[in-house]
């Protein structure tokens, strides 16, 4: 039987993977397979699969604006990658404090005493609870049964609380929790934190009742406790901006400012959801509590990189300057049905492939806001979706990711930027 060398196998594909990687993969394949043709096929499949997993730009044509698998909130990516004064004081030629400007500007915008940043919102909650347990000798966390969440990646709130060393005490029922449920526990367990959690990926409807932040804040002083609000999505937008742009889908969503004004001691939220920036966790609220978190021994292990802080700074600047439309997420959400329809018709008119245009429903976030949707015109391929059509979209120079509706490939421009229309047109002319 004819043999094939590692070098020849590595060179048998024109993949753009570095040659050292292809050599390594070729050795692994040849160690397991001696048949030349089978080895070539296996090698090609492994290389192609690996190449497709490399992080790269894609076009999100699913209509889900905060798509978990596509990085949630899109970003401008303005960080240069060069040196920054992240911990350098340009005024006195000495070491500076990380993110001092960012903290000052965002706390001023939100109207709170202090702010700090960590690598994601799960860290926000974990570190806050750990720091409070250590520095204030809290022993328990009180939470409504209807807010004991599980989110993607098997993140379960009870397990996170257990890791902090605090005991979780459930109050109320799944569908109904009253203020007296909290006071009853506080009377028996005085060293307890009150935690309210945003139900980010599910909703409870029907015969329901929950206790508001304002109600919970009214009992804090009597029981010498603190109130934490894990807000998750993190709406900080100016209501006037929403009105001017006819965006009414967030009317029932609690903003960070609302939570702080109503009496939360700490509000925790994600940077890469409704805030519209990069993956991060933001903790806002009482300055003393914030300083305790920042001085906690584990804080350094969860802090943000300079590039993350830079991107957050850019996003905050847009909020402060009231130019929210320069935040990619808010740009996409603010697009009118009519403007999207014009773009859809333009693409369809120049396409060699036949589409139906229908009124569809776009999601704001699959695992972020389960009940928040927007009407959008959608493009439906006239024939049933096939793997070959899907492959052309996914194998495009900039992959185009559609979704399926009525067993047909569907393209929804709600999550597509205007300058990407041309790329979609070109690709569809290949079909």
Throw out a few tags for this protein.
431 residues; alpha/beta; Aspartate Aminotransferase, domain 1; Aspartate Aminotransferase, domain 2; 3 domains; 7-stranded mixed sheet; 17 helices; 19% strand; globular
SSE layout and pairing:
Blueprint: H1 6-10, H2 19-32, H3 36-52, E1 59-60, E2 88-89, E3 94-95, H4 100-110, E4 114-118, H5 121-136, E5 140-144, E6 150-151, E7 155-156, H6 157-163, E8 167-171, H7 179-188, E9 192-197, H8 213-217, H9 220-223, E10 227-232, H10 239-244, H11 256-261, E11 266-270, E12 281-285, H12 287-294, H13 306-320, H14 328-333, H15 337-349, E13 355-365, E14 369-381, H16 387-394, E15 400-401, E16 403-405, E17 408-412, H17 421-428
Parallel strand pairs: 1-15, 5-8, 5-9, 9-10, 10-11
Antiparallel strand pairs: 2-3, 4-12, 6-7, 11-12, 13-14, 14-17, 16-17
How many discrete structural domains? 3
Major β-sheet, in short? 7 strands, mixed
Structural class: alpha/beta
What's the pLDDT, averaged over the residues?
Answer: 90
How many extended strands?
17
Computed over alpha carbons, the radius of gyration is 25 Å
Into which percent range does the helicity of residues fall?
A: 25-40%
Shape: globular
CATH architecture of the largest domain: 3-Layer(aba) Sandwich
**Cα distance spanning the termini:** 42 Å
């Amino acid at each position: 039987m004819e043999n094939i060398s590692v070098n020849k196998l590595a060179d048998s594909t024109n993949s753009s993977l570095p040659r050292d990687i292809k050599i390594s993969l070729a050795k692994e394949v040849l160690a397991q397979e001696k048949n030349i043709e089978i080895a070539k096929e296996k090698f090609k499949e492994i290389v192609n699969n690996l190449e497709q997993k490399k992080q790269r730009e894609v076009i999100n044509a699913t209509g889900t604006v905060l798509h978990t698998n596509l990085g949630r909130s899109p970003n401008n990516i303005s960080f240069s990658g060069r040196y920054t004064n992240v911990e350098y004081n340009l005024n006195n030629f000495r070491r500076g404090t990380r993110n001092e400007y960012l903290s000052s500007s965002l706390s001023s915008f939100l109207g709170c005493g202090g702010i700090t940043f960590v690598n994601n919102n799960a860290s926000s909650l974990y570190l806050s609870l750990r720091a409070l347990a250590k520095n204030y000798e809290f022993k328990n966390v009180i939470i409504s049964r209807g807010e004991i969440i599980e989110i993607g990646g098997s993140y379960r709130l009870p397990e996170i609380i257990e890791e902090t060393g605090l005991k979780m005490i459930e109050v109320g029922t799944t569908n109904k929790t009253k203020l007296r449920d909290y006071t009853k526990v506080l009377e028996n367990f005085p060293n307890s934190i009150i935690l309210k959690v945003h139900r980010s990926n599910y909703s409870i409807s029907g015969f329901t009742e929950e206790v508001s932040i304002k109600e919970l804040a009214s009992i804090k002083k009597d029981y010498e406790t603190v109130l934490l609000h894990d807000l998750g999505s993190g709406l900080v937008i100016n209501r006037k901006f929403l009105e001017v742009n006819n965006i009414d889908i967030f009317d029932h969503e609690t903003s960070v400012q609302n939570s702080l004004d109503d009496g939360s001691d700490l509000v925790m939220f994600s940077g890469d959801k409704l805030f519209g920036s990069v993956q991060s966790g933001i903790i806002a609220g009482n300055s003393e509590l914030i300083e305790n978190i920042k001085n906690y021994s584990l804080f350094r292990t969860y802090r943000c990189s300079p590039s993350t802080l830079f991107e957050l700074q850019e996003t905050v600047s847009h909020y402060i300057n009231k130019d929210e439309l320069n935040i990619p997420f808010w740009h996409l959400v603010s697009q009118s049905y009519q403007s999207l329809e014009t773009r859809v018709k333009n693409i369809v008119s120049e396409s060699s492939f036949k589409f139906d245009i229908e009124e569809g429903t776009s999601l704001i976030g699959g695992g972020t806001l389960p009940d928040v949707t927007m009407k959008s015109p959608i493009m439906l391929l006239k024939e049933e979706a096939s793997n070959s059509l899907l492959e052309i979209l996914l194998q495009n120079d900039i992959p185009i990711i559609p979704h399926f509706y009525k067993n047909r490939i569907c393209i929804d421009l709600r999550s597509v930027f205007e300058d990407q229309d041309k790329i979609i047109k070109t690709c569809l002319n290949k079909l």
